[in-house]
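Sharing a chain and its predicted structure for anyone who wants a worked example. Both blocks are below, sequence first, tokens second.
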Amino acid sequence: MTESNPKKPVILIVDDSKVIRLAARKMMGKDYEVVEAADGVEGWEQIQQNESISVVFTDMQMPNMNGLELLEKVRASNDDRIAAMPVIMITGQEDNAEAKQHVFDMGVTDFITKPFESLDLISRAKSYARLNRKVAELEQQTGHDKLTGLFNANSFSEHGAKAFSFAQRHKVSISVAILEVDNFQKIFLTHGKAVAQQIIIEVSKRMAESMRAEDVAARTGVARFALLLSLSSVADVQLVVGRIRESIHKLVFATGKEKLRITLAAGISSIELDAETDFAGLVGGAETALGDALNSETDKMATHAAAAQAAPAEAAAEPAKPPEVSQADIEQALGHILHGNYLDIPKAHLPAVIERLTAFMQYVENKHDNQHTA
């Protein structure tokens, strides 16, 4: 992705006239970073690559791809950021009211007519850049994706960092799964935006229905979702993701031409596989596994570093000896149980504690039976 100066809003000028582009740069260069494109093809590339662009000014009449075609691509984009981008159409004296009405119906944000004054450009750039920024800020503040109602990427990172810190502190498992609709770009281009959005909404519903109350589900990309599952091992997550994928595969979408089924690819990563990682590393592992799943012709679910769990054949023949647990360790664990601090009990001490508690429960059961037979 192209990164631009974050101190100034970025304005894209799309016009085949060098004179117009130069004039726009001189008029707005003091307060804005101006990037240029000579036609709609170049403009569309800039819009996709430069996430800093706030407003697009485009000429209506251009070779290769004109302003109408560029506007159509913007509004039909499967990227919500692009689809909602303010587009100002630059019209000439030859463009009549009927043509302008057609552009308005296509979703243009505003018009500006040649020859224009600096005030015309600056006032529109200021208004729509500010509006675009406010919309983005509001979406971040709400923490939810507006299409699906799931958490957005920022909220997922915030919740994930807290949950990961808790998991490390209490030495419990935590896992992340990243899921993506397979071949979504092809689906979008073949069946259109309405079908694509319907798929995203239905996937998010099925996902939410399969999650526990304490789990976190987010939409982190156009057709990508992330799940955060606390106190869950790789095997636990594989079961959850398996249920979600099976539920999604049963869905049938009517496209008007054919009935469509979709597949979810999934990548899974767990703290159990790499205790030295951080939350970003945990997510990165799931994304690596997702890449393997997307590239696979058969298995669309993969686990990051799963090979690290497999011990050498010689070692597998001899099970590891359980660590010795002292009387003091058991007494301390029982104290944690009495105070409800179950997560403070080291995992290695659990077998010995369970053994003691099992013997106690057998004693209580026998005592109870003897009282009733006496």
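Comments welcome. The longest strand covers residues 174-181.
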